[in-house]
Specification:
By secondary structure, this protein is an alpha+beta fold. It has 8 helices and 7 strands, in the order βββαββαββαααααα.
Length: about 325
């Protein structure tokens, strides 16, 4: 699927690349949703771009994330997104604060932004389309009011930064909600531990994504494809990301506090279990001793001939157990 924004302010959608039948010079911004890497060559043919750099999405070096030559400026971004069906509602803040368990771990897929001397291309996968389409919808009116490809490129970077800030706020909100929940529950389940792990992984993904785009913004300051006004806007975006990075660190601190709280609850639960075992062991030991003594096969044991010896031994066991239970109750062990 391809959405094309034209220089005259109009937009048009094509289901297949082969259906694109308008001159390249009339286009300003192209939004492409692709299913596979094999479509890069077709994109390159239609929009006159170099596809070789776009295929380097699995490399981790910054050189595989940003490349600029005389023809085009290319960016590969590891874009974080929510696989949950409630991803859009997460972003819009429509989920109830009580539904913290619906938050899913963040995954990342590569999106591509290509800037030429007259055109901007945004290339994304169906998975990332859900989030990006929502944000593009919010910016639709502003997109139509822009007249240069440099302004659109800057708007895309701003849009991605806004999305990062929103997702990080979602993570912080979930940590806060879950911290309140943990203080109320008595026993921590495996689902609770898995949820905290998901939060931590998601926060790590967001930190990696923010560091990545910060490096790219620093490189864009020397780009020949952007004018001074757009570079100033991107500098402001870089400064905003510094604040976002502080929020990520705050989220890590909250998650650490949450993990410590959970660990303390687990230790308390283990201590309660050990107390129960201790009480049972101490209560059983005296009756076991009495039964062991009178179970010995000696020929002469005076108590064995006593008429009420059996009842006396049972009463002794019960009295000893009650004495220990009373003692433990007084010490508030039980």
């Amino acid at each position: 699927m391809i959405d094309i924004y034209f220089k005259n302010g109009e937009t048009k959608r094509y289901e297949w690349m082969r259906d694109v039948d308008v001159p390249l010079q009339d286009m300003l911004f192209v939004n492409v949703v692709k299913d596979g890497a094999e479509e890069f060559n077709e994109l390159a043919h239609i929009f006159k771009i170099d596809p070789s750099f776009l295929a380097q999405k699995e490399d981790i070096e910054i050189s595989s994330r940003y490349q600029e030559d005389e023809r085009q400026l290319s960016i590969n971004l590891k874009f974080p997104y929510l696989r949950s069906e409630d991803a859009r509602k997460e972003v819009e803040g429509e989920l109830s604060r009580k539904s913290s368990q619906q938050f899913q771990r963040i995954h990342r897929q590569t999106i591509h932004i290509v800037l030429t001397h007259g055109l901007v291309l945004l290339i994304m996968t169906p998975d990332t389309q859900r989030v990006l389409t929502y944000y593009l919808g919010q910016k639709a009116m502003k997109l139509k009011s822009l007249h240069t490809h440099e302004e659109i490129f800057t708007l895309l970077i701003q849009m991605i930064n806004d999305y990062y800030a929103d997702v990080i706020q979602i993570i912080i909100d979930r940590v806060i909600v879950y911290s309140e929940k943990i203080t109320e529950i008595k026993r921590v389940s495996e689902n609770d531990l898995n949820f905290i792990t998901h939060l931590n992984f998601s926060n790590m993904h967001m930190k990696e994504s923010v560091i990545e785009i910060q490096k790219i913004l620093l490189l864009l300051k020397t780009s020949s494809f952007l004018d001074h006004a757009q570079k100033n806007k991107l500098q402001l975006e870089y400064e905003d990301l510094l604040i976002v990075a502080e929020h990520i660190q705050f989220s890590f601190d909250r998650i650490d506090d949450l993990e410590e709280n959970v660990s303390n609850k687990i230790n308390l639960e283990q201590n309660r279990i050990m107390n129960i075992f201790t009480v049972i062991t101490v209560c059983i030991a005296p009756p076991t001793l009495i039964a062991g003594i009178y179970g010995m096969n000696f020929q002469y044991m005076p108590e064995l001939a006593t008429r009420y010896g059996y009842y006396f031994s049972l009463a002794s066991m019960v009295v000893v157990i009650l004495i220990f239970l009373g003692y433990f109750k007084h010490k508030k062990w039980i």
